[in-house]
């Protein structure tokens, strides 16, 4: 792991645009000189002070609040100076330029958090949670990310590591006394301990899988003829969370993507209505983009009119959707036919009967969608995990399964335990390659 850097970084930490307040954040090994030149003094630690931010000629750039967090009690573990000024793009740029003039350089995306990680303020899973809090698409995901930031997931992973270490110590200690009568691993009660750790790891993996779903959501391709009730049904699904429904039209002829949430699980909906004949280049680009989203989707949601069922026009679009996608056919407007609201599984697709008008069957539809997403509501909280974490947990679980199968050979057994421990430690970043760190932090926003 690289040593902590010794240069000063600065960035506008608040979003682009005009706002009541804007913050420039500076971090470095020592900021006394920069603070003195910019605001005339070094503020008392962790106390908000009123200050005039001045340029090189001593002319006021802005009037605001300065906060100083001396190392090591700061976000990055270095000296951190926060300048809270007016949230105008020009004034913030002037303030940033002044910090650069005084020796800072512009921070890379995620660099503050990277320094926090390098200075042991956060482990890697917590650092990733910082980005997840900012990017959370639903309230459930946001709360879950905050718990990860506070260390819930890391603590669970560390507890698993501790138990593996304990088991390794026992196994390795007994290996040193082969002359004892009892099988060394029996004495260590290794079998029971191993199965306990495996059960705990399986539980962590299940919770992490749920969390990963909360992060990325379910990607749904929406198909259906005009007027069958697609929009009405989406509104029903979004329910009270309608306020969070976002249409991301790009241009009107571009891919139409919407995100709604069901029980906090984001559903990213790609509408195939845009898949008409292309008349020009812009439309062609939009259609190509829709197809590439369809390629990556999880579920095909086909909405039909319960009075007509699946028509040949529906079939021609369904035929073009990758067969890999789970299929859910919704027979809407069931209020207009004598049919009952129900759910059927025909083997290759699932059918749900609904009325967007009366709301009948909508709960069943929600359950079916969440079921396809693999969402299993349970009393236990979920871990906000990324694919990287899931991968590490899965690898560790495989190692432990392997350990179980080589139980009669203590050396091999001990080696599998060691490898499982290494996999788990990758989650919290104990041994993480620099290029992976680079990749993780590059996805952060500037100023975080
Ligand atoms: P879309 O073109 O597929 O998005 O369909 P809309 O959601 O705009 O609905 C088309 C028409 O059908 C509207 O007049 C809706 O009020 C009506 N509609 C939608 N769902 C139902 C339903 O379940 N029952 C009945 N009776 N009418 C519905």
Explain the overall architecture.
Helices cover 44% and strands 19% of the residues. By secondary structure, it is α/β, with parallel strands linked by helices. The chain folds into three domains: 115 residues, Gyrase A, domain 2; 107 residues, tRNA modification GTPase MnmE domain 2 (Four Helix Bundle (Hemerythrin (Met), subunit A), Up-down Bundle), CATH 1.20.120.430; 157 residues, 3-Layer(aba) Sandwich (Rossmann fold). The protein has an eight-stranded mixed beta sheet, with helices on both faces. It has a six-stranded mixed beta sheet with strand order 3-4-5-2-1-6, covered by helices on one side. A hairpin with a 5-residue loop joins β3 and β4. α6 runs antiparallel to α8, α8 packs antiparallel against α13 and α13 packs antiparallel against α14. It is flat, with a radius of gyration of 28 Å. The chain binds guanosine-5'-diphosphate (GDP). Guanosine-5'-diphosphate binds next to α9.
């Amino acid at each position: 792991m690289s040593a902590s850097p010794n240069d000063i970084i600065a960035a506008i930490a608040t979003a682009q645009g005009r706002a009541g307040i804007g913050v420039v954040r500076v971090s470095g090994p020592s900021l006394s000189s920069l603070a003195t030149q910019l605001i005339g003094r070094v503020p008392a630690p962790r106390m908000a002070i009123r200050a005039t931010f001045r340029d090189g000629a001593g002319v006021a750039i802005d009037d605001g609040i300065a906060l100083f967090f001396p190392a090591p009690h700061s976000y990055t573990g270095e000296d951190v100076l926060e300048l809270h000024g007016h949230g105008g793009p020009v004034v913030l740029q002037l303030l940033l330029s002044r910090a650069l003039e005084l020796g800072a350089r512009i921070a890379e995306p995620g660099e503050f958090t990277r320094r926090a990680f390098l200075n042991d303020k956060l482990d890697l899973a917590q650092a990733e949670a910082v980005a997840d809090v900012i990017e959370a698409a639903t309230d459930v995901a946001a709360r879950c990310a905050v718990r990860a930031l506070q260390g819930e997931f890391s603590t669970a992973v560390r507890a698993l590591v501790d138990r593996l270490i304990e088991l390794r110590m026992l196994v390795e200690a007994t290996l040193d006394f082969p002359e004892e009568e009892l099988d060394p691993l029996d004495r260590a009660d290794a079998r029971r301990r191993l199965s306990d750790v495996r059960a705990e790891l399986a539980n962590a993996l299940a919770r992490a899988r749920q969390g990963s779903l909360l992060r990325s959501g379910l990607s749904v391709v929406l198909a259906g003829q005009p007027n069958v009730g697609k929009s009405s049904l989406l509104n029903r699904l979004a329910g009270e969370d309608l306020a969070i429904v976002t249409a991301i039209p790009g241009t009107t002829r571009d891919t139409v993507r919407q995100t709604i949430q069901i029980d906090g699980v984001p559903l990213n909906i790609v509408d195939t209505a845009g898949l008409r004949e292309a008349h020009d280049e812009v439309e062609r680009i939009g259609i190509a983009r829709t197809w590439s989203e369809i390629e990556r989707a999880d579920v095909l949601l086909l909405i039909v009119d319960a009075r007509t069922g699946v028509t040949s026009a529906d079939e021609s679009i369904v035929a073009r959707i990758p067969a890999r996608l789970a299929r859910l056919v919704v027979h809407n407007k069931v209020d207009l036919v004598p049919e009952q609201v129900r759910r059927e599984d025909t083997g290759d697709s699932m059918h749900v009967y609904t009325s967007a008008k009366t709301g009948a069957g909508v709960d069943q539809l929600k359950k079916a969608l969440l079921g396809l997403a693999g969402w299993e509501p349970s009393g236990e909280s979920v871990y906000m995990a990324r694919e990287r974490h899931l991968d590490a947990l899965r690898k560790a679980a495989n190692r432990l399964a392997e350990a179980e199968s080589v139980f009669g050979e203590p050396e091999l057994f001990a080696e599998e335990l060691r490898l499982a421990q290494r996999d788990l430690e990758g989650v919290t970043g104990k041994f993480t390659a620099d290029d992976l760190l680079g990749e993780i932090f590059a996805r952060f926003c500037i100023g975080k």
